[in-house]
């Protein structure tokens, strides 16, 4: 290349070129370099795969925008995507290698040069899917991204998933002694047992008993019958199941804040959420629902929609704070505000968390986005009042296991807290940007203490605010 440039700018060594000749030859060099760039197309920065039960995401990051055209074939199900402005290079073959055999949605993948400047990616699928293929402009540390989201055409019902998980946990009870089985029949009937009875046609009294709670519950959610009842009588006298939606922040393409030691927020908050889930599931007639249970991205609006779909009684979003300096420390709890942020720091934090969609990669052209945005604009004073009660109950318990950044619940316009009918809080567990607190967040001991504190806060809230009756239809 250097020799070619020299031949254009100075073909005869020792000869001095005129200004006109030099300009003409420089123009030829620019034209040649531009043609060469077009021939090789975009450069691939990175390729990533994010498999999950809910959907699989593939991303191709490049230095210039790649224009996609998609074709979906139903039998057998497969998706073909033509990518314009790029030639086949080894980096694209790396994407094929990233697909694992246990991917819930992808059976296999192949890539080839379809025509000059156009690469075709063919994805063989394990089931019918609803693909979303879109591009994202540079944001945060990312350059241009081509995103392929593969959603199952028949998404599992989240309540059915809760039932299946409960049934799986209860299997060991079937081999218990007869005396234990007899005692289980006299125990209060779990609402999940009733739901399973509807699906299986069996009496709830014959289903395995729920796991006993290790801690004495602060409230009696289920009424104990004075004498044995039929299944229909029990259903009429049994209060409903209480569901707590847990929302581990960020995930997938969005790592959240990153500590000085490289700890990613999305990883530690998922671990804390999983520990809290286990504690909730041990409570009588209480179950946890996670907006994500693995490393994948969930848009803010979908997090709220998921909680509303299972008719959650509470929504707890779990995060790890960060700031420009390493000095700030301590946990915080936030609730929604309809009158502006309670402090400039709360406003800054809300703006930072609300940017998760742009970092994680939201398809703004999706048809349901307008519905999501309309839903997020709804909020009520009753929801905010109950959210403040929940936040205060949690903040008092968190203060018993670690430092608090603020001694009161703060308020700001967090998008993820805008479910109009669910008391919702956002818990910043610690400052991951502080080296000492980053180490605590990574430690099992602190995660256990924090999960215990959050569980006590939830139970204290329900002790003061018993859940209202509500019908749930499966």
Describe the structure.
- This protein folds into three domains: 44-152, Immunoglobulin-like (Sandwich), CATH 2.60.40; 158-237, no CATH class; 242-464, 3-Layer(aba) Sandwich (Aminopeptidase), CATH 3.40.630.40.
- Helix content is 37%, strand content 21%.
- The chain contains 15 helices and 14 strands.
- The strands form three sheets. Strands 10-9-11-14-12-13 form a six-stranded mixed β-sheet, with helices on both faces. The chain has a four-stranded antiparallel β-sheet with strand order 1-2-8-7, with helices on one face.
- The protein starts with a helix and ends in a 10-residue tail after the last helix.
Task: Summarize the biggest pleated sheet.
Answer: 6 strands, mixed
Mean pLDDT: 79
Strand order, sheet with most strands: 10-9-11-14-12-13
CATH superfamily of the largest domain: Zn-dependent exopeptidases
Low-confidence residue ranges: 1-5, 29-39, 173-238
Keywords: Cell wall biogenesis/degradation, Hydrolase, Periplasm, Signal
GO molecular function: N-acetylmuramoyl-L-alanine amidase activity
Family: Belongs to the N-acetylmuramoyl-L-alanine amidase 3 family.
Domain MurNAc-LAA: 304-459
